[in-house]
Amino acid sequence: MTSSSAASSVFSALAPYGWDEAWADEFAPYEPEGLLPGRVIRVDRGQCDVVTADGVVRADTAFVTPHDPMRVVCTGDWVAVEPAGHRHPQYVRAYLPRRTAFVRSTSSERSEGQILAANIDHAIVAVSLAVELDLGRIERFLALAWESGAQPVVILTKADLVPDPVTLSHLVEDVETTAPGVAVLTVSATLGEGLDVLAAVVGGGTSVLLGQSGAGKSTLANALLGEEVMEVQAARDIDGKGRHTTTTRNLLVLPGGGVLIDTPGLRGVGLWDAGTGVGQVFSEIEALAERCRFHDCAHESEPGCAVLDAIDTGELAQRRLESYRKLLRENQRIVAKTDARLRAEIRKDWKRKGAEGRAAMDAKRGRWG
Question: Does the annotation list 167 as a binding residue?
Fold first, then answer.
């Protein structure tokens, strides 16, 4: 087989998984080594399933497993893998630079990042209407989604459980206010409503499906796939929560086009260096802040604060400002734990403020003395 026909074969086999000319250019340095391009469709305990032009292979990731958890192989990665017959087991020799990645912080005390999906175009946040909306949690998901480099989308699932159209409209409006610049769709997989719109969204590129257990992610995945691929369990009536039906992150090709990465339900959604994402979620607050009298306004009690004025007039909800402050503080803490330079800057700022405070007290004592 000539090189041109081999390249054509690779394109025809991998194009449904997102292979394009840009990925081919990234892979070019590995071609002379006899390695094969492929996309990781599942990772499990140091091994991964990789789809190549020759089919799906099981490969070991020992050669590309560094100490940095942010650089381990992840579902959605494009990799260079050894061909069949080279050795057993086959090994992933390298992964191509990621275009985007959805990252959250782990629950560990070491504050490590965890990559949930790589090379994604849409980050779909599934939110169940079977329970009371948690707008703060939606904001967290969206901050990470914006930071990933993908386009966020919010899907309100189980819309059939809210039969009153007025109530449903109010719920959608609440989420739209929480998610500026983000499409908010209502879907009922049971009735088949809204699935055509969702299919059109995920039909181009790679989408990752995110949300808590019980949000209906596996049901959505099955509806988009047109078959029962993902196991589904009923959510508890009392709180709408379900078990982790999906236990690994799986990459699936959709029959209508596009690729879907289904993920296990997420209990914790910790921020991970998501300052830009937080700013995007609260874009109306950042826009207001540009009109504040002081450029370093903390929006607490400063005169001429446009943010506080907006709260007084009802233009901005107090809940939004409190959530904004909370996520900013959390993000600064996580970044400070992982960024020595920023830690030093924060310590320097603390020392400066401490010195200013002591100088002020000394001045008062001198004046009073």
Answer: no
User: Has 280 been labeled as part of a binding site?
Assistant: no
Lookup result for tokens 């081999």? 6
216 is in an annotated binding site: yes
299 labeled binding residue: yes
Helices (H) and strands (E) in the chain, counts: 11, 13
What tens digit of pLDDT does each residue of 167-201 get?
999 999 999 999 999 999 999 988 999 999 999 99
What is the spatial distance between Cα 275 and Cα 327, in angstroms, rounded to a whole number? 9
The SS3 call for residue 188 is strand
Residue 48, marked binder: no
- Name the DSSP letter for residue 346: H
CA distance 217 to 189: 10
Give which of 239, 225, 161 is closest to 193, Cα–Cα. Answer: 161
CB 65 within 8 A of CB 72: yes
Asked if the 275-358 domain carries CATH number 3.40.50.10320, the reply is no
Task: Give the model confidence (pLDDT) of 238-286 as tens digits.
Answer: 444 444 444 578 999 999 899 999 988 777 778 888 889 999 999 999 9
Q: Return the CATH class of domain 3-95.
A: mainly beta
Distance CA 281, CA 116 (A): 20
Q: Residue ranges per domain, the chain?
A: 3-95, 101-262, 275-358
Q: 97 and 263 in contact (C-beta within 8 Å)? A: no
Give Cα separations from 286 to 36, 151, 258, 325 (angstroms). Answer: 46, 20, 34, 12
Query: Residue 105, annotated ligand binder?
Result: no
Question: How many C-beta neighbours within 10 Å does residue 287 have?
Answer: 13
Residue 267 host element (H or E) = none
Q: Is 194 annotated as a binding residue?
A: no
> 297 labelled as ligand-binding?
yes
User: Is 214 one of the annotated binding-site residues?
Assistant: yes
Beta-sheet pairing, 47-52 with 78-81 = unpaired
The strand pairing partners of 186, in sequence order, are 156
Name the CATH architecture for the domain at 101-262.
Answer: 3-Layer(aba) Sandwich (3.40)
User: How many CB atoms neighbour CB 38 within 10 A?
Assistant: 29
245 is annotated as contributing to ligand binding? no
159 is in an annotated binding site: yes
